[in-house]
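Design request, tokens follow.
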């Protein structure tokens, strides 16, 4: 009841402050086109205000500039990571990839089970291009939202396509003599991760980037 009273009070306030001024405008002997333009201008300037929703503040975020010490520290970290990648002395890498609308955390020689229909056939070698993050013991590379396809190379092989275990779907409506039993099996695709490679240097960007589209 308290909620209904509050809603009625809210509708009353909207009626008093918004709808009555508009109806008073239309009482004048004006043309139909003028009424439409006036109505559009009135509703365009209205903004809904609810006390439990915080007001949005249009404040531009200031990006702080790096000092010389911070810039030197970041350059040193990037050089260390590039040296590890060039000499192949980095630790075991892991990655977070997006496959068929779902995200998986993978490492080398992992087997990933993808549920539902997926076109690749057994024996196909594929490259996973939707990479969100790659990391190891000493560093992590985070995409915005995806990493560059030329920087990270993740290869995989489809090893098997099968079905899941049989699932029982039982529906019942009491006192209606309604009972239905169905058995379902979803498609499963098993994928083995062959390798996760990161190509150095990581701080070099292409002159034109972001024009290619990944489906």
């Amino acid at each position: 009841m308290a909620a209904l009273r509050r809603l009625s009070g809210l509708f009353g306030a909207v009626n008093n402050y918004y709808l009555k001024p508009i109806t008073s405008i239309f009482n004048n002997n004006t043309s139909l086109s003028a009424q439409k333009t006036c109505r559009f201008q009135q509703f365009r300037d209205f903004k809904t205000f609810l006390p439990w929703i915080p007001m949005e503040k249009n404040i531009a975020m200031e990006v702080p500039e790096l000092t010389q010490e911070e810039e030197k520290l970041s350059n040193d970290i990037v050089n260390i990571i590039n040296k590890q990648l060039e000499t192949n002395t980095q630790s075991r890498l892991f990655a977070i990839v997006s496959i068929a609308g779902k995200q998986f955390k993978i490492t080398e020689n992992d087997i990933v089970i993808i549920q539902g229909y997926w076109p690749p056939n057994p024996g196909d070698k594929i490259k996973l291009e939707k990479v969100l993050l790659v990391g190891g013991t000493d560093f992590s590379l985070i995409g915005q939202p995806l990493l560059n396809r030329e920087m990270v190379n993740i290869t995989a092989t489809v090893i098997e396509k099968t079905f899941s275990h049989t699932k029982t779907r039982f529906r019942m409506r009491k006192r209606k003599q309604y009972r239905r039993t169905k058995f379902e099996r979803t498609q499963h695709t098993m994928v083995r991760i062959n390798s996760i490679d990161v190509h150095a240097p990581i701080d070099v960007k292409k002159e034109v980037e972001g024009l290619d589209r990944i489906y």
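Comment from the thread starter after seeing the answer: thanks! Residues 2-26 form the longest helix (25 residues).
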